[in-house]
Specification:
- It is a single chain.
- By secondary structure, this protein is α/β, with parallel strands linked by helices.
- It folds into 2 domains: 168 residues, Rossmann fold (3-Layer(aba) Sandwich), CATH 3.40.50; 196 residues, Up-down Bundle (Dehydroquinate synthase-like, alpha domain), CATH 1.20.1090.10.
- 44% of the residues lie in helices and 15% in strands.
């Protein structure tokens, strides 16, 4: 057989560099439904069978311990009803929710042990049913076991249904740094069941609304106005208002990820992290007694005030932001904003350095030029930020 000569372009041959180029497209459904685990609801079964409709798929389920105890039995009954497509390799495995699971790496190893024990492979499914913290950890386990196992998210909190659950990030904390260990790995499907929100404590429902205010402030002035008009209904957790808020917030997050030009955050800008540089630090300073959404609300108020002080945002707009957050049920002050580090500098400002290190590249944060208009800036004046903290504290006492 005659040999075939493959000629590289002359420029590549001379330089000795050969450029490997390929593109990988990602797509996954984000479904809004009710009674997901009712036998007659085919949403989960259809999602599992999407690529291979004639197979029976092996599934390993991790369940947030904070959910109703009978949910595990409902999942098992659902799998039995759809046995032609779903094989549960074990009863749903209950895991802690909240930051506890993200702060202790032993849980990652424990779940990977379950993946190994039950021979979960790349044609199997790992299903996470729970809040954002559990989804983050199970997503990391799925992304790193066998270099990637199909992962289905079933978010059960307002925050995970309208924000983190529809994203592509997974992670755990290390050395008190938020999401220091993690991956970018899109899920196979996201299935949002509004009925799962009914039993949430009021504090959890309120916390999830911070991300709606955030994304409205940076991307959608009409949504911000809608939130202002419906604040009373949202504060009372009226189902129709909550469903609309969650859907629109999820849509805006999905649009930013898909069309913002940087879904895996390889650049320096992260507009969806408006208000987060201080929020992440507040969470660690309070040893996670502050919920993520509660810390984000404070971060939003702080950066809104800074935007006014810097002459970027109209006077009074910061008060409008604070009024909305307070009407939704948030408290916009915490004593941790006054804590000092070992060097006696304000500990909250350490969050700026940690944010820069986590992001890499040029320091970039999002501020506001309007209620619905975000802009990227590359420096913050620490003295002006401390003045914004003074304003926030004075406001809390008025």
């Amino acid at each position: 057989m005659a040999s075939q000569q493959i000629n590289a372009p002359a420029s590549e041959a001379r330089s000795g560099a050969y450029w490997q180029r390929f593109a990988v497209s990602f797509e996954f459904p984000v479904v809004f439904t009710r009674a997901l685990f009712a036998p007659e609801n085919r949403t989960l079964a259809d999602a599992i069978a999407r690529l291979e409709p004639d197979r029976r798929h092996r599934c390993l389920v991790f369940l947030d311990a904070g959910l109703a105890p009978e949910l595990a039995a409902r999942i098992e009954a659902y799998a039995a009803h759809h046995a032609a497509r779903i094989e549960l390799v074990a009863p749903p495995q209950t895991m802690p929710g909240g930051e506890k699971i993200k702060n202790e790496l032993a849980y990652v190893e424990q779940m990977q042990g379950q993946v190994f024990q039950h021979r979960i492979d790349r044609h199997s499914y790992i299903i996470a049913v729970g809040g954002g913290a559990l989804l983050d950890v199970v997503g990391l386990v799925a992304a790193t076991s066998h270099r990637g196992i199909r992962h289905i998210r079933v978010p059960t909190t307002v925050l995970s249904q309208n924000d983190s659950g529809v994203g592509v990030k997974n992670g755990v904390n290390l050395n008190a740094v938020k999401n220091f260990v993690g991956t970018f790995a899109p899920p196979f499907a996201v299935l949002n069941d509004f009925d799962l929100l009914a039993s949430l404590p009021p504090r959890e429902k309120i916390a999830g609304m911070a991300e709606a205010v955030k994304v409205a402030l940076i991307r959608d002035p009409a949504f911000f106005l809608w939130l202002e008009r419906h604040a009373d209904a949202l504060a009372a957790f009226e189902p129709d208002a909550m469903a609309t808020m969650i859907r629109r917030c999820a849509e805006l997050h999905m649009h930013q990820i898909a069309h913002g030009g940087d879904p895996f955050e390889s650049g320096s800008a992260r507009p969806l992290d408006f208000g987060h540089w201080s929020a992440h630090k507040l969470e660690s300073l309070t040893r996670y007694h502050l919920r993520h959404g509660e810390a984000v609300a404070i971060g939003i108020a702080l950066d809104s005030r800074y935007s006014v002080s810097a002459g970027m945002l109209a006077q009074g707009a910061d008060d409008r932001v604070c009024f909305l957050l307070e009407n939704l049920g948030f408290k916009l002050w915490h004593p941790a904003l006054r804590m000092r580090g070992a060097d006696q500098r304000p500990a909250i400002l350490q969050g700026l350095r940690e944010f820069r290190e986590h992001l890499g590249g040029e320091f970039t944060v999002t501020l506001l030029t309007g209620l619905g208009e975000g802009v990227e800036v590359h420096e913050l004046d620490e003295a002006m930020m401390m003045t914004a903290i003074d304003w926030l504290e004075a406001r809390s006492k008025s």
